[in-house]
Amino acid sequence: MIFIGPLPPPVHGMAAANQAVLDRLESDGWKIEKLNTAPRTLSRSLFARLGRLLPVLRAWWRLLRYNTRNRKTVVYLALAGGWGQLYDLITVCICRVKRMRIVFHHHSVAYLNKTYPLTCLIIRAAGKDSGHVVLCDDMRKALKTCYQAPNVVVLSNGALFPIEKSSVQRPKVRTIGFLSNLTYEKGGGIVTALAKAIKDRSWPLKVVVAGPCVDDQLSSELKAAEAKGILQWIGPVYGNEKEKFWSTIDVFIFPTQYQNEAEPLVLWEALATGTPVIAYRRGCIAEQVAEAGVIVPINENFIGKALSVLDSCIKDTAYYKALSETARKRYANVRRQCEADWNTFKLLLKRGLDAN
């Protein structure tokens, strides 16, 4: 198998997922040739963008020189979410000329809200024998609807990043948590406003915010709220500090407004610890959380809905305990399904490899 796509460093969601796929395939005995297209930096400057072409050119050169005579070859391609698809189109054309079968891994929902001509061209150029891997069933349906893509299978990030956490018995709601790279787009401003609304109601709840923030305005807003006792901002958390965060959180909020949000790993972490989730509906989030929390439609007021849910949790501890237990069961069920999905994914890769 030939892999084409970005690998760490630098570290970002797609690169980490790609590395996790390769690590697990290699542990299962797969022989993989890796064509790493990762740039040296995630900078969006013109110079950096031009520099991203170099690893792609190297990948094209190696593809053109690859000997496919008398053997079947499958190419596993991590599809870009934006204009990087221009490079992917050329990659697909080279693979087709070399008679290589292509399996796409879709990490982004950026092109799944409507039909985009470039994505449509890529999928058609790949042919009917191509395969497609998505993160959830909602993505599968969207890919089918927008592009009539063939051979689509679901492989959740839960299969790539198994989480071993101990569930915490939570008798009642005391602490609300939020963990993210803190930006307004990710919901940082909404969380601050929600914390203020909780304090104004004199509810016996603590709001803890975790994660780094490079936005000066949001950083100032968080510090000001902390100074007034509205919330606690503990900054980035890793290792034992992250474990402590999850052990003290009773409800996790995730009001992301990020357009390309797909399947946040942080939500699997919440469910693995038996923590109910209140989140905006984006990407795969509704399917992730299911009955283990409350999903807020993106056009509705998140703060109002969250306050209503929290009020119910405070007044009805049985309701809250049921949500927490559902979260634990949800993650356990997903882990079992992920193992079956992993085997289906490998069958998709293997299809036709042994044919002469």
UniProtKB/TrEMBL annotation:
Keywords: Transferase. Residues 166-330 form the Glycosyl transferase family domain. InterPro entries: Glyco_trans_1. CDD domains: GT4_PimA-like. One of its GO terms (molecular function) is glycosyltransferase activity. Gene3D superfamilies: Glycogen Phosphorylase B. Pfam families: Glycos_transf_1. The keyword Isomerase does not apply. It comes from the Bacteria. This is Glycosyltransferase.
